[in-house]
Amino acid sequence: MANEGGKVFNRDVLIAGDGALYVKDKKVIGENGAFVNGAAGALAKTAAYTMAAADSGLVTTVTAVGNTVITLPATVVGYSFTIVNGATNGVGEISVDPNASDKIVGGSLTGGDGKKFTNTLATSKKGDLIKLVADGVNGWFVTEIVGTWAAEA
How far from chain centre, in Å, is Cα 139? Predict the structure, then answer.
């Protein structure tokens, strides 16, 4: 995967310097935030959204200004979601909200049941991301995190 002056998150995900999103060497979201050539494997969101089973495994790029809440479904073994901040630095805050009986844990953060993880507005940067995998019992585990995220108290 070419690093066109962008952020490489892992071997599969890259946000290029021009704002385009690549998944597994395929350009899926162009500089304007629109899907490219019927790309699969990615979602683009400009407002609050509730993730569905069919979204598991997809990369979701949020380009909204202000606070946007991405709600997770109840934990099911193997579900995984990658949520990327696609907004300009300092204008897009993303909160990831688990089911009331599920936690998000990982990195240096531990949340309680139903507590959000937030990529705060003041520190948000285009390309910040959180990747979560469900265990089917307790909730969601962070397998990758980029940027500054805070756990709700």
Answer: 16
Distance CA 111, CA 13 (A): 26
Burial class for 75, CB neighbours closer than 10 Å (0-12, 13-18, 19+): buried
- pLDDT range class, residue 3, cuts 50, 70, 90: very low
- For residues 51 and 72, give the distance between their C-alpha atoms in angstroms, rounded to a whole number: 5
Span 39-51, average pLDDT: 84
In sequence order, the 6+-apart residues with CB closer than 8 A to the CB of 66 are 91, 92, 93, 121
Amino acid of residue 30: G
Fold designation for 40-151: Jelly Rolls (2.60.120)
Beta bridge partners of 97: 71
Domain ranges of the chain: 40-151
* 64, 87 Cβ separation under 8 angstroms: yes
pTM (two decimals)? 0.75
Q: pLDDT tens digit string along 119-143?
A: 999 999 999 999 999 999 999 999 9
